[in-house]
Amino acid sequence: CTKKDLIGKKVLVTAGPTREKIDPVRYITNHASGKMGYAIAEAARDRGADVVLISGPTSLPRPVGVDFVAVESVQEMFDAVMEALPDSDIVIKSAAVSDYRPRTVYDHKMKKGDGELVLELDKAPDILKTIGERKANQFLVGFAAETQDLLENAKSKLERKNLDMIVANNVLTEGAGMGSDTNIVTLMSRSGEQVELAQMSKRAVADKLFDAIGLLSGQGSLR
Ligand code: C5P
């Protein structure tokens, strides 16, 4: 893709998993690789945008030519996103953010006992929902990684979180979702339009995503 349609635009992307500490040696996380978000950041950069990439821990090389902010916990990602938000035109939240976090983070390694262990979890702040409540003119894109009722869940997320678009993917499908180099997604706009994309590289998905954002913010429709 050689389009330079994002010159002068500021794009904020989140990527990767988060890590919620239990004690100094243990944490709760998920299988997100960061590949989708990094591909989005690189596509935005190549189309001329100024890009801020806020990333949880991944094994990917840092993309050159983007502002990179490394975070671990939901709270760190929340703080970094809220700081960058006022200066952003397009916000794409592809990170797989933890929904819950341990109520207590122990200062020392927890000892084994004889019986079972129950870990208490509190709700973590929903970054995307908070952006949806605070946003001014930003074009806001969320992700819905689902294992069932994909499109229904994506639609309700889009509405509940006040998004302009949502990218829905079934993470159980081969060639889609976490860790894979390819993805199979459906783009859904606020007005209910849907575009189902074939299996393609995450970079190609990223370019389709920016094509769709361009169409929606220009003519107000995906077709
Ligand atoms: O409702 P659910 O967590 O599945 O929604 C997924 C979307 O919400 C993703 O875009 C993800 O980055 C975002 N999210 C978030 N903060 C959370 C949980 C999810 O920003 N605590």
UniProtKB/TrEMBL annotation:
Q: Looking at the record, which segments are called Phosphopantothenate--cysteine ligase?
A: 11-223
GO MF annotations in UniProt: FMN binding; metal ion binding; phosphopantothenate--cysteine ligase activity; phosphopantothenoylcysteine decarboxylase activity
Cofactor binding summary note: Binds 1 FMN per subunit.
One record GO biological process: coenzyme A biosynthetic process
Does the keyword Acyltransferase feature in the UniProt annotation?
Answer: no
Reaction catalysed? N-[(R)-4-phosphopantothenoyl]-L-cysteine + H(+) = (R)-4'-phosphopantetheine + CO2; (R)-4'-phosphopantothenate + L-cysteine + CTP = N-[(R)-4-phosphopantothenoyl]-L-cysteine + CMP + diphosphate + H(+)
Give the EC number.
Answer: 4.1.1.36, 6.3.2.5
Q: Where is the DNA/pantothenate metabolism flavoprotein C-terminal domain?
A: 7-213
Alphabetical keyword list = Decarboxylase, Flavoprotein, FMN, Ligase, Lyase, Magnesium, Metal-binding, Multifunctional enzyme
The annotated pathway is: Cofactor biosynthesis; coenzyme A biosynthesis; CoA from (R)-pantothenate: step 2/5; Cofactor biosynthesis; coenzyme A biosynthesis; CoA from (R)-pantothenate: step 3/5
The answer, when asked if Metal-binding is one of the entry's keywords, is yes
Tell me its cofactors: Mg(2+); FMN
Which positions does UniProt annotate for CTP binding? D99, K109, P125, D126, I127, L128, F143, K157, K161
Gene Ontology cellular component annotations, sorted alphabetically: phosphopantothenoylcysteine decarboxylase complex
Which purpose does this protein serve, as stated in its record? Catalyzes two sequential steps in the biosynthesis of coenzyme A. In the first step cysteine is conjugated to 4'-phosphopantothenate to form 4-phosphopantothenoylcysteine. In the second step the latter compound is decarboxylated to form 4'-phosphopantotheine. Catalyzes two steps in the biosynthesis of coenzyme A. In the first step cysteine is conjugated to 4'-phosphopantothenate to form 4-phosphopantothenoylcysteine, in the latter compound is decarboxylated to form 4'-phosphopantotheine.
Family (UniProt): In the C-terminal section; belongs to the PPC synthetase family. In the N-terminal section; belongs to the HFCD (homo-oligomeric flavin containing Cys decarboxylase) superfamily.
Q: What is this protein called?
A: Coenzyme A biosynthesis bifunctional protein CoaBC
Species of the source: Brevibacillus invocatus
